[in-house]
Amino acid sequence: MRFSACLVLVGSLMHSAYAGLVWETTYREIRVPANEKELFADFGFKNTGTAPLDIASLETSCGCTVAKIDKKQIAPGEAGAVHVRFDIGSRKGEQVKGIVVKTSDRTRQTLVLRVLIQDPVAFSQREFVWSSGGPATPKESIVELGAGARILGVESLNDQFDARLEEMDAGIRYRLVVTPRSTGIPVDTSIKIQIADPKKRSVLLQARIEN
Amino acid sequence: MSWVARDIALIAAAFAASVVLGISTNVLRRVPLPMLYKNPEARVLSAVSPAAAITSGEPEVLEYKVAVQTWKASAALFVDARNPPFFEEGHIPRSINLPRDSIVQAGSIAALADKARPLVVYCSGEDCDDSRIVAKGLLAMGYSKVSVYSGGWEEWSASGSPVEK
Q: Are B130 and A63 within 8 A, CB to CB?
């Protein structure tokens, strides 16, 4: 018992000596109106270790996202932030961008910025789930289009599903019906809806058959 | 000389000194900052060829089904234009990593030795412009069959298609 307690104590002390960067959050979700052109977000951190740390690299998942820090070396006890600029441009809907931060203590942290840009296209359901071996009944999602938006096409990215659109209110409201051909094999895929509003883009809805 | 003229001369001298200091500091940087801003596409194209902006055409865009058929048939080499940490987290099997800012190294990659080999470039998703920029850069470098898979990693991984880590 005493030995275990000693191990925990030694482990804790070692951890505090090499704790490195502690992040305020590694995930940020921000909602923005459609007319915004860019967005700024900070990911705060503190060096809780006893040694200075260098930010070895900052890399983003997309050229539309730029990450910067005020200074490269972070002294023990010092706080700072990764400043992220996301170019919204004509993007709409959900955007998930990653920033990988590597430090001189050989740790790597992925920061996630989820941006929800006001979308002129709304879905009542974004996920269709069936049980493996259960009935292959159709499931639906009501699609509502805002001003200037139109649907160009719908397709399943896996042949095990059939996806079709039924018009409810021409140019405004549609019913998206998704039907599995069978529910025998577990599958995880997406239904792709191509939209023009006015720029052509796609929205992915999840469809899966799970055990 | 009036005091106004003297103050203006002093401000101008201080401004000139700060410009000289800024330029000198920049020259001493390991990678100097460009003197004139260029957008990422112009930067990539001028890096691969000074005349690229004029000679480089637009690559063909592939939808998911064509991309997956091409991949299944091994009819093209897939090129991932994302930064290395994201490639390491997962990518389309048998693809190679060629980030936008490393495009000048394409010639030293063995898989890209044959400029007639069909290439399909992708990045994180439809909203990412890096695949198009890299594809245009490759076209400018003389690769003749370059297309872009617009849905990219986001669509590929969401489709349930095979992935490699």
A: yes
Please write the tens of the pLDDT for every residue from B12-38: 888 888 888 878 877 776 556 667 667
Contacting B with CB below 8 Å, chain A residues are 59-64, 91, 95, 97-98, 100, 102, 108, 110, 155, 157-158, 187-190, 192, 201-202, 204, 206
> Using an 8 Å Cβ cutoff, are A110 and A27 in contact?
no
Q: pTM above 0.90?
A: no
Interface predicted TM-score (ipTM): 0.71
Phi, psi angle pair for B155, to nearest 5°:
-70, -45
Residue A111: which pLDDT band, with cuts at 50, 70 and 90?
Answer: very high
Domains of chain A: 20-117 (2.60.40.10), 121-210 (2.60.40.10)
* Residue (of B71, B58, B65) closest to B148 by Cα position: B58
The average pLDDT across B121-137 equals 92
For residue A25 the two structure tokens come to: 């959050």
